[in-house]
Every structure is written in structure tokens, then in C-alpha cells.
Amino acid sequence: MKLTPVRKLTALLALILGISAPSFVVAQTAPTTTAADSRTDEKAPVSMEKFEVTGSRIKRLDAETVNPVLDVSVAKIEAQGFTTLGDALRALPFNNGQALTPMDSGTSFTPGVSTINLRGLGNNNTLVLINGRRAVPYASPGFNGFQTVFDLNSIPDSAIEKVEILKDGGSAIYGSDAVAGVVNIKLRRDFQGVGTSLTFGNYFNTDGLVKKASVIVGTNTAKTSMVTTFDFQDQHSVFARDLPFSRNADLTSVAASSNLRYTATGWADAGYSSEAAYLTDVGATDAIADGWADQRSSRGFPGYVVVGGRQYTYTTPTTTPTVATAVRGVNYYNFSEENGMFPEFRRYSFYTTLKHDFTDNFYGFADFSFSRSHSVVYSAAAPADIETSLGLSAASQMIIPSYNPYNPWAVDISSGRRRMVEVPNRINDVTADTPRVLVGLGGNLNGSGMLSDWTWEAGALYSKNSVSNISQGAVADSRLQEALMGLTQQGNGSLAWNPNTPQADRVYFNWFGLNNQPMADFITVSNPNSASLEYWNYDVSVTGSLFELPAGPVKLAVGAEHRLEKMSNIKTDLNATGDIVGGDEGTSSFGQRDVTSVYAETDVPIIAKKVEVQLAGRFENYSDKGFAQTVRPKVGFKYRVTDWLALRGSYSKSFKAPDLAYLYTAAQTTFTSGKVPDPVTNTQIDQLQVVVQGNPDLRPELTDTYYAGLVVEPQKWGLKGFEASVDWFDYKQKNLLAQLSDYYGYAEFLSQAAAGNPIFAGKVVRDPTTNQVLYVRDDYVNLLTGSYRGMDMAANYTWKTRSVGDFYVGADGTWVDKIYVDTDNIVGGYLSPRWNATGQINWTRGDWGASLFGIYRGARDRNVEYGSIFDAGDTLYISYRVKAQFTLNASVSYRGLWKTKITVGGTNVLNQTPPVDPMSSSGTTDGINDGQPAFWFVRLDRAF
Questions:
Q1: Spatial separation of the C-alpha atoms in residues 667 and 722, rounded to whole Å
Q2: Are residues 537 and 559 in contact, defined by beta-carbon separation less than 8 angstroms?
Q3: Residues 6+ apart with CB under 8 A from 161
């Protein structure tokens, strides 16, 4: 018999209740306390309001649950010296893998965005909640334009009370995306009075001035409470040229001193007696001389062309190019001199929350918030490739015609590259708006017996993120083609395209020299794009005690939710037709889904104050075709062995529904960030063009999560104030979304296609004349399995003294044992350090406080495929180590001056340069290593 959703939930509840107890016992009615009782007896019990802790829907009085939950308060963030939520969360040791930061904005899909990547399982595998309800992600997908991420910049800083992080799987409680864990950002609900905060700061030796201001106002009456906050932040831009590690894209000298190691495959088949003999014979160390680590662009100025299979350019710009004065080769361009490092950023945000008690057992609430983030990201002038650019129409290819007077070879030229230095540097002017409205009702059932402590709540939530990206400094393919074919000068000095103008009377674009302003004005276009992601969410839940066991009450929470997600990604005609020089190509995309879910959770005490078990399950029905409809369970336990030792563990099934962009994106073109060797033409491709399209047949990713640990809290033996914990975790995954390029390096990707491997049939598109790669097709499919295993360790000690103040010393670390992608263990590899850790020392005495906070980001080894460029079947690899990074934050505070707290602090106070990554265009590994130089700040906080 096929089970319906209702029958599945009924079966789930029956299983939970069957495990919980063999018989029903009515809970005793709790005694009540009146105002008169509290006045006449100081020892009378005080009524406390129950609350939810992240990882459980059951309301409770204590914050300690079965689940491993990390509590990060605003006070902790400030004590650690951070000025942004994103920087604080990315410093957590179990944040592994690559995150999106404002530093790696460039011309990315998400300029200015700030994300986290818990466990390294993907930026979209952590569910972000606001006050326990799902938060809307950033509308423009990140990385290569498919991964939906949450932007931490959309949260108003002054409204944050604390952040709770569930460190194991949470899909049974919260649904999709809660694979690596859950980040619940709790905004202020209770505040009385007025509070203000002002922050000024700057990076050392730059002009990245930061200004922040906020106001919080709150009031409470007998029945009504309201809190309102206003935030403002402004930051100047910092350029790559301002920082020593990023001002030169040529990292050859750095690579030469990086203890490079060379390895190869296929040497035996090539007839060599050993790998060493092969490496000696082919001159492996010539990779440095060949410019392997020179990340400068071959799209330089003057530009080059390919004529007769050879590259020609000129040593200096010229208005009279001749065949005799042309030189072989290219001019390299150091784009780091013009690229931005940290964007210009401005944010305004507003938040207000209201709660009103209509009666003692019935209340209403509402939250309203709005955040606007504005980023201006600067990048070097646009690069132009003749061979991959359009001509006058989508069906034609760009050429420099034979009659162009700056073409001395007098033949049509269909291959060449150039930097469009006449045009202003590219600017992404991005505005992201996030409104959020939540209204709801709740109350107590006010029953007797087993209904005495039951509560209910229902809410309706609307939230939307809208992103507008105005790309300035773009060049249109068709206009550049017209300029190469010659333009007509107007009476006012401007230029226009008129094919009827005789060739001798036209004004032509000079590929080898600097063109004037009217020419630059003609080829330049503005390219505005927009995206939106919209959530409508309705939920209802009830929680309370079911019955009494000898060890205590069995508690239950049940609920239902319905969510509508709608996405749109609007591209201009320039993008849709690919009419942008060196730019993003793609058509507009639209998609939506409906999700209906029911869940149940119970908390069962087995032995009073000793053993507690959590059982939970969630059933979700997706409108997406082909999604299996099954219950996602979770079981967890906590066993307090003694008053100083507790054991805990859990098993859960989590899932990740494909982001809407993975399903419905019409087409998206991206470029690799570094050079890719082409084994067919034996050349280096500066930036390989990759085309990806959405796949509506994708299935959810599935994860089994195992978690176990212990907590030690000795209160004797002279160790009062000491606490330590060790947690073991293991994530086993299947149906992971992947591209073929996740299995194969791009050089092997290209060679397999050329060899006729049917897996790659049609994946590589080459120019039929030159055989150069135009682009590769690399759609996502459910390809991979994965496993992620390691340990979290933490220890802290609080020491209180009467004479010298109070001290807090703490350390946290995450050690990763293995990260398997199919059969390959990639731990310690390019994006996966084996060790991350933090350490902290705090001191307070009276009105004074001081803190030191250190962050350790582990070393990583990178293995780069240099290419099959020596003998057929041979592949040379170059390996190097990206060194570990240690940064130190410090702060000092004093709160005894006119009720004002003054904090002076800094991040990376030792001004440590990040470890250099020779294969990264920014000089370090963005999103893993922190490239920020020393930053100082002064913060003033005052309550009225």
C-alpha cells in the first residue's frame, strides 16, 4: 500500500510514541504563581518563558540540548576584534573550503557578497535562519552562476543578538539545505532604552576608510514590546596595487621559491626507465621559464594578431604598423594594477519587531526589515579575443578586414587578442535590496493535564532579494566589429556606423595603437542585469508535554510549512546574443517551486538528568519532477555519565534540493581564472570559455550524517571553570552535483574529447580553421559520491580573581581526517586544509577589558596539471604548498567615561601577508586565506 504524506507522518508519530513509552500517563498540572505570592515570599518560584534552541523545535527552559550547538554572541564577536559578521563566522575552525568574500569580487557573479562554507560541503549546504525561520538567499547565484548562497551583508548588525550554529545535519528539523549545519541569526526581541554605536577604521597604508553607525530603540509595556534598529555602513575601495602580494600578477619569482615538485604520468609507456629520467629529458623545470606562474594576461597593449599561424605584435603603440616592424609574440598585461581588491561598499538597513499580548494566552507579533547594500567593484579594462567574438551578427565571427589601414598584412585576420585600454575600467555597480515581512499569532492552549504546557504559533513570511548589476565599461562585439570595418565621422565629431560610406572615407579602429575618445565612446555600452529570489512561507507548529515518564515528561513538537520559491535572472539582449567583448553570455532564466512539509520531533528522558533521546522526522513534497518523497529522520542522544562528563551523538539523513538556478538557467558562460594547457594545439589558453545550462532532471543530493562527542566540565580538583569537548563527525554523500571537469583537469578534458572518448562527445567546440578551443560544454549532473570525516576540539578556562580581574582562555580546532570525492582523498589539497584553529585570551577588570584572538588557517598542497605537451600520453604535474596563515586580532575597551564604552582594536595587527598561491590571479587563495592587511578601528557605544 502506498503511503500518503498524512499516513507517513502518522506512521512517524506512531513510531516515535511507540519508542517513547508503552503507556500514557497524564502530566501533573504545574503550580501557578501570583504577583501577591512573589511579594510576600522572596523565595517563591519565578515564572520563566520557554524558548527554542537551534536544532530543536521543542521549547525548553535550559539551553543545553542533545545537539552540538555553538553560541556566538555579539559580545564574543566584538571581543574577537571583528567588525563584520561574515569575518567572524569565516574564522570558525569548522568553516572549511572556499567561501565568497568581498575580496574576490572582481567580475564575479556575486560582487561584494559575504558567505560561509561550513565543513567545506558548499556555500549552499548550510541553511541560514533568521529567528528560526528560513532566510532568503542572494538572488544572483554565485561561483559560476549556479550556486545559490546567503549574503551575510543583508543582516543589520545592530539588530543581531547572537548567532546559534548547529554543527550536524538538520534536514529532519528544518528541511533542505541543512546538510553541513544550520546558522540561526537571532535578532533582538527585547530591549529597553536607546543605544548608539559609531565605528571608524582603516586598513594600514590604504584608503579603505570604514564608517559605521547604528541606533537601537526599544520599549516595553505591560502587554507590548517593540525594538527598532537603524544601521549605516560605508567603506572606500582598496585596489590590488595597494597590497604587496597582489600588485603584480606575475608570480614567477614567488613560484620559483615555493619548493615546487614535479611528477608525471605515462613515462613508462613513453619508453623511459624512471620518472626521474623522464623529468630530466623533457626539462620539467622549464615550466618556470615557460611562464607557468605568470598570471598576467596575454590580452595586452598593443594587441597581437595571428597571421599564418604566427603571433605578431609591436613593442610600442603605433599608428603606422608595418609587416617589417612587427615582432613575434605578445605583450603581457598586469591587470592587478587596475583591479579592485575590496569593493566600495555602502549599506543601509532597518529592522523593527513588535509583540503584543492580547490576553495571557494569546499574542501577536510582526517583524519588518529592509536592507540595501550597494557595492562598486572595479576591474581592469575589458579583454578582447577576435576568435571568440561575434561579427556584425550572431552568425558571423569578428575579423580585422584586409582593407583596415592598420592591418599591414592585407588579409582578413580572424585571430588575435587585445586589452581595450581606451575604454574606462570595468565597473560593476551592484545594488541588492532585501525586504522581509513576518506576521503571526501564537499562544498557550491553556489546557489542563497533558495540555497544560502546550503552546502554538503560526506565521506568514514574505522575503525577497533583488539584485541590480549595472556593468559599465563594457564593449559590444558588434560595435567593435563595425569600428574595425570603419566608421563615419559626424558633424559634431562623434562616430557612427554607415556601411554606405566609402572605405577611403571611414575612421578605423587601430588594433595596435591608442584610439581617440570618440572611438572609445562608440564601442562602449552599459549592460544592466537584474535578478530576484522571492520566498512566501506559511507555517504552524505546536509543542508541549505528551505524558510523564519516571525520568520526566516526554515532549513533542509537530508542525507544517508551505513555501513558494520564485527566481528570475534577467539578462540584456547584449548578454543573450553574446554581444559583449570578454563578458558573460546567457539568456534570461525563470523558475519556481512549491514545497509542502510536515515534521515531528520528540524529546524522551530515559533516565532522569542522565539520558535523553531526540527523535525527529520530516516529510517534504516538492513540485520538482522526479524528487523522491521520503521521511528524513534524525535520532540523537545525550548521556550525562557523571556530573563532569557527558556523551552525545546523533544520526540523521539530510538532503539538498538543487538550487533553482541548477534546474532552470537557460545558458551561462564563464571563463577559467587561470591558464589552461591545450594538448591538441600545444598552446596555453589564457581563459577557457565554459558554457553551462540548467538541467531540470537533477535529483537532490543525499547525506547521512554521523556525530558523536563528549563534554568534560570538572567542577572540582581545582578545575572549576574549565570545559573541554571533542566531537567526531562523518558525512557520507551521494548524488552530488558535479561537472565532468570535477573529475578531469581541463587539459585532460580537452585531450579526451580529441581522442574520441564518447563521454566527452560534443563537449569541446573548436574553431574549424585554427583548431583553437572556442568553448567547452560542462553541464551539471548527479555524478559524485563523497565522504567528509574529522574531529572538532575545544577547551576553555575561566579564572576569576579579586585583585587582577577575570581571565578567559580558549582554543578551538577542527582536524579533517578525510575528504573523499568518489575514490580520491582531497584533504590537505587545494581547497581543503587539514587543520584550522583559533585561540583567545580575554581579560576584564572593572571598566577595562582586553582581548587577543588568533586565527590559524592550515597549509594546503596544490597539484596543477601543466599539460600533455611533451609526448603523447604523458602528463606533467607541478605541485607546491600554500603555507599556513596565522593572523592576530586585538582590542582594548573602557566603559567608564560618560556611560560610553570605547573600544580600540584591530584585525591582523601584525600585518601578516597571506601565503602566496602562484595559480591565483589575486596572489592568494581567495575565500580560504584572508588577504586583508592590518586594520585598525575605534568604536564608541553608548546607552541612554
A1: 56
A2: no
A3: 73, 74, 186, 187, 188, 189
Q: Determine the pLDDT at residue 136.
A: 97
* Domain range for 141: 5-20+60-247+338-383+426-475+527-943
Extract the runs of DSSP E, i.e. beta strands, from 66-125. 69-73
SS3 479: helix
Residue 64 has pLDDT above 80, yes or no: no
Q: How far apart are CA 151 and CA 702, in angstroms?
A: 24
Enter the DSSP assignment of 258: S
Q: Which residues pair with 218 in a beta bridge?
A: 193, 227
* Cβ contact 149:86 at 8 Å: no
Backbone φ and ψ for 343, nearest 5 degrees, come out as -75, 160
pLDDT in tens, 651-703: 999 989 999 999 998 877 777 756 677 877 877 776 788 888 888 999 999 99
Specify if 274 maps to a domain: no
790 with 95: CB under 8 angstroms? Answer: no
* 902 vs 197: CA distance, rounded Å: 10
Specify whether the CB–CB gap between 850 and 893 falls below 8 A: yes
Provide the residue type at 255 as one letter.
Answer: A
CA dist., res. 68 & res. 73, Å (int): 16
Question: For position 91, which CATH number holds?
Answer: 2.40.170.20
Measured distance CA(142)–CA(78) in Å, rounded: 29
Joined together, the cell numbers standing for residue 801 give 580573581
- Going by pLDDT thresholds of 50, 70 and 90, the confidence category of residue 59 is confident
Assess if residue 133 is contained within a domain. yes
The pLDDT tens digits for 476-503 are 999 999 999 999 999 999 999 999 999 9
| Beta-strand pair 160-166/69-73 | antiparallel
E strands present in 115-180 = 126-130, 133-134, 160-166
126-130 and 181-187 beta bridge pairing: parallel
DSSP string, 487-554: BEE-TTS-EE--TTS-GGG-B---TTS---HHHHHHHEEEEEEEEEEEEEEEEEEEEEEEEEETTEEE
How far is 922 from 930, CA to CA, in rounded Å? 12
Candidates 84, 94, 73, 244; CA nearest to 907 is 84
- CA gyration radius, the chain: 31
Does residue 395 lie in a domain region? no
Report the C-alpha gap between 423 and 480 in whole angstroms. 12
Least confident of 480-494, 609-623, 848-862, 919-933: 919-933
Distance CA 435, CA 452 (A): 38
Mean pLDDT of 348-353: 96
**pLDDT at residue number 862:** 86
Average pLDDT, stretch 795-802?
93
For the chain, the maximum distance between any two Cα atoms, rounded to a whole number of angstroms, is 106
Contact 119, 181 (CB under 8 A): yes
Question: 496 in a domain, yes or no?
Answer: no
Number of domains composing the chain: 1
C-alpha cell recorded at residue 736: 552530488
- The answer to whether 850 and 894 are in contact (CB under 8 A) is no
- 4: which 3 cell numbers? 500518503
Whole-number Å distance between alpha carbons of 891 and 903 = 7
Would you give the distance in Å from CA 391 to the centre of its chain?
37
Rounded to whole angstroms, the Cα distance separating 455 from 517 reads 70
Nearest of 611, 641, 456 to residue 549 by alpha carbon: 611
How far is the C-alpha of 328 from the C-alpha of 59, rounded, in Å? 74
Beta bridge partners of 260: none
Phi, psi for residue 674 in degrees, rounded to 5? -130, 180
* Beta strand extents in 273-315 (DSSP E only): 304-307, 310-313
d(CA 460, CA 440): 6
Amino acid occupying residue 308: G
Q: Which phi-psi region, left, alpha or beta, contains residue 271 (left: φ > 0; alpha: ψ -120 to 50)?
A: left
The values of phi and psi at residue 707, to 5°, are -140, 135
